[in-house]
């Protein structure tokens, strides 16, 4: 008995000693931000989604498509909450290609049912116009980015109430704020820019947004509601991207609460049914004439 | 199907008429109603029922997803997003199916380690157990095929890695590979046939599950004491006792399942799989789903490609040899003081292998993976045969009843009428 314990301990020690955590290659983890939509009771902040959409429309959309999102989504429940009229008006500002009866491609104003037209006709054109690499589409980008949390944090991230599933959004927020002067001696090839949070630090996207670039709607007294800073813009656009990637998130979380509560109540009731039935064991079971399986 | 006589007595004229032509109701009755269940089963024995529930859940959600999915390289990714965005409750179907695969494996791992701890693989349950290993293999194939369907980066590169290691098999490897690919690399034809096979395999699983339950019906269930049912006092009827326990446990498991669906739907997946497949860009780390990680660690622990493939498949297949590698006649680890410790050590090694499978194959991780791989096989090839020979097991209880009520105590009556149960072979 002792020998197996010694064996177990030495095996574990051997494994641990050779896997002393290899250091991260100098990319800091994005800071963890507060998001209204995080957690079990998380909900999107409508005003924030509207501001985020404004940032996307005025800044990001010149390079980044959002081809899986349709204009009508902007008016659907759990989203930015634009009215159907606003969406119709907005869509009409965009042109989409359509084939007419003569078989010619013609432009027509977009309708609510159309997807957001991409800024480039195709991926090759997008790559050619952007130094060889197409800017990624925004539709699911918030779910397509993450960063490694490592042990034991990744275990805690899965738990209710202390859980964490906004790594992608935090990364996007950090990236937009991560442009800084490169450390002395670091060579920056043409067409790349130094970003603290980008893997390898050399990103092809120039700093996309700066303080004061987007003018947000003012309140009744003509005062700004939120600061017009990169920090605020990046929060808003990251939240908007979270919605674009998961437009049914609020419906999902609301339904989840009901489903889990139902299952917990049901399991509680079943537990007592089970207890009551099992209390009969030791008594007589009537009407059964079972034969027993072979005993070995 | 039954090796035993029927206990079902049809009451109505119609039931009598039908039963004398096809004794189907009697078969179900003897398997799920009057079937004698050891009365000392713990909750680890509810995972069989949970697994059947998961299989049904996967098949039902899968059939619905297939109504909206497009298995072509050009449209697969977008059709999954179409399900997520535009299909009514499509997000629920897809998250149920994706997380359902993980939950299926959670349940199957509990089920497998339960069998290993309590010696459920030993005579007379070898065939029952090997059918289980076959189900596990089919599950792995199904899960792998399914993970390629969203056609994200991890789908594509996972398919590329796994199909290319099959190419390492001598003589037939390249043929298998090009048959799977349907071309010279992973592409749209690959996706098409993977979708077809992904739809086929679950029904094969269902078939083997029927055999698994059949074999269980013949040998009866093992139990925490690892001793057979000796009298009616040791058993209870499947219905209502096991039925209500299984339903309760399944509902608790589904609450756990629901947590992942609704609150961590992407935790068990990879962010990279939300990037559309791109043959020109290799992801930084190609990592399989968590349930394959121990085997992936074994594959990469071997410097030789073919050697890695052989070892990886052996790691699964060696499970099937457990009935003959284990020399101890005592089933349950509760009565095996030495082997019990090796069991827990083996479990720890499996978890460690899983962790190492997620790490890049470099430096200390490779060395650690090699140590763990070696131990994984030593457990089967050395520990199982030797400990059985040298270990002195604890005294086994006199009966299953004794483990529930304590030795020497009497209970009034029994779970089952004694006379009916005490002479089983006379009816078989």
Task: Please outline what is shown here.
The complex is a heterodimer of chains A (296) and B (428). With 296 residues, chain A is mainly α.
Describe this structure in words.
The complex is a heterodimer of chains A (296) and B (428). Chain A is mainly alpha-helical and 296 residues long. Chain A has a domain at 24-69 and 115-260: Cytochrome Bc1 Complex, Chain D, domain 2, CATH 1.10.760. Chain A is 37% helix and 5% strand. Chain A has 9 helices and 4 strands. Chain A has helices at residues 2-18, 46-58, 84-92, 123-129, 141-144, 153-156, 167-176, 230-245, 249-278; strands at residues 95-99, 105-109, 193-194, 202-203. In chain A, the strands form 2 sheets. In chain A, strands 1-2 form a two-stranded antiparallel sheet. Chain B is mostly helical and 428 residues long. Chain B is 62% helix and 1% strand. Chain B has helices at 13-19, 24-32, 47-66, 76-85, 90-117, 126-148, 153-166, 173-181, 188-219, 238-263, 293-301, 305-317, 322-325, 337-357, 363-390, 400-405, 418-422, and strands spanning 36-38, 235-237. A two-stranded antiparallel sheet of chain B has the order 1-2. In chain B, α11 (293-301) runs antiparallel to α12 (305-317) and α14 runs antiparallel to α15. Chain B: Component of the ubiquinol-cytochrome c reductase complex (complex III or cytochrome b-c1 complex), which is a respiratory chain that generates an electrochemical potential coupled to ATP synthesis. Chain B: Its main location: membrane. Chain B: Keywords: Electron transport, Heme, Iron, Membrane, Metal-binding, Respiratory chain, Transmembrane, Transmembrane helix, Transport. Chain B: It holds the Pfam family Cytochrom_B_C. Chain B: This is Cytochrome b.
């Amino acid at each position: 008995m002792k020998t197996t314990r010694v064996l177990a301990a030495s095996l574990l020690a051997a494994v641990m000693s050779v896997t002393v955590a290899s250091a991260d290659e100098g990319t800091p983890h994005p800071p963890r931000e507060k998001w209204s939509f995080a957690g079990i009771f998380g909900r999107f902040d409508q005003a924030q989604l509207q501001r985020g959409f404004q940032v996307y429309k005025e800044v990001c959309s010149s390079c980044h498509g959002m081809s899986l999102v349709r204009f009508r989504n902007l008016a659907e429940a759990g989203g930015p909450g634009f009215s159907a009229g606003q969406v119709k008006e907005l869509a009409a500002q965009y042109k989409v290609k359509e084939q007419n009866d003569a078989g010619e491609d013609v432009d027509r104003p977009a309708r609510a049912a159309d997807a957001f037209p991409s800024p480039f006709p195709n991926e090759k054109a997008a790559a050619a116009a952007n130094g060889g690499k197409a800017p990624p589409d925004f539709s699911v980008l918030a779910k397509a980015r993450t960063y490694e949390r490592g042990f034991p944090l990744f275990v805690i991230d899965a738990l209710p109430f202390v859980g964490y599933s906004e790594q992608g959004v935090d990364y996007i927020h950090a990236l937009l704020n991560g442009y800084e002067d490169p450390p002395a001696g670091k060579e920056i090839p043409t067409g790349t820019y130094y970003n603290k949070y980008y893997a390898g630090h050399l990103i092809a996207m120039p700093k996309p947004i700066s303080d004061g670039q987007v003018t947000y709607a003012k309140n009744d007294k003509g005062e700004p509601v939120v600061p017009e800073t990169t920090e605020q813009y990046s929060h808003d656009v990251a939240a908007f991207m979270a919605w674009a990637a998961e437009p049914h998130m609020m419906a999902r979380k609301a339904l989840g609460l009901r489903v889990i509560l139902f299952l917990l109540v049901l399991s509680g009731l079943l537990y007592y049914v089970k207890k009551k039935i099992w209390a009969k064991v030791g008594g007589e079971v009537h009407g059964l004439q079972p034969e027993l399986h072979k005993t070995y | 199907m039954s090796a035993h006589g029927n206990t079902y007595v049809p009451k109505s004229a119609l039931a009598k008429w039908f039963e004398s032509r096809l004794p189907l109701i009697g078969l179900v009755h003897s398997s799920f109603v009057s079937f004698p269940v050891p009365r000392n089963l713990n909750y680890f024995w509810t995972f069989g029922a949970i697994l059947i529930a998961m299989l049904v859940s996967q098949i039902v959600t899968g059939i619905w997803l297939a109504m909206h999915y497009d298995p072509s390289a050009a449209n697969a990714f977008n059709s999954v997003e179409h399900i997520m965005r535009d299909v009514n409750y499509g997000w629920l179907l897809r998250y149920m199916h994706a997380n359902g695969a993980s939950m299926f494996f959670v349940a199957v791992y509990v089920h497998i380690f339960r069998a290993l701890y309590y010696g459920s693989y030993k005579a007379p349950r070898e065939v029952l157990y090997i059918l289980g290993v076959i189900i596990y293999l089919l599950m792995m194939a199904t899960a792998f095929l399914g993970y390629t369907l969203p056609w994200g980066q991890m789908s594509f590169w996972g398919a590329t890695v796994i199909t290319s290691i099959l190419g390492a098999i001598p003589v037939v490897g390249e043929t298998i590979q090009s048959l799977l690919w349907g071309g010279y690399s992973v592409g749209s034809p690959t996706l098409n046939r993977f979708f077809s096979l992904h739809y086929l395999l679950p029904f094969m699983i269902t078939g083997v599950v029927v055999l698994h339950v059949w074999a269980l019906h013949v040998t009866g269930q093992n139990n925490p004491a690892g001793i057979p049912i000796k009298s009616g006092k040791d058993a209870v009827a499947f219905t209502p006792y096991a039925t209500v326990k299984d339903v309760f446990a399944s509902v608790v498991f589904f609450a756990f399942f629901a947590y992942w669906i609704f609150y961590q739907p992407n935790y068990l997946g990879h962010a990279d799989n939300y990037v559309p497949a791109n043959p020109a860009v290799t992801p930084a780390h190609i990592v399989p789903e968590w349930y394959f990680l121990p085997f992936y660690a074994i594959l990469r622990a071997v410097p030789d490609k073919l050697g890695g493939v052989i070892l990886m498949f052996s790691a699964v297949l060696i499970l099937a040899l457990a009935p003959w590698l284990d020399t101890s006649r005592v089933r349950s680890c509760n009565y095996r003081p030495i082997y019990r410790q090796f069991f827990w050590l083996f479990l720890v090694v499996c978890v460690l292998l899983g962790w190492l499978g997620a790490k890049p194959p470099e430096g200390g991780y490779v060395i650690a993976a090699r140590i763990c791989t070696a131990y994984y096989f030593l457990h089967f090839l050395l520990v199982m045969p030797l400990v059985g020979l040298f270990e002195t097991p604890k005294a086994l209880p006199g009966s299953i009843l004794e483990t529930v009520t304590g030795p020497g105590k009497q209970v009034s009556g029994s779970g089952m009428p004694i006379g009916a149960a005490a002479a089983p072979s006379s009816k078989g």
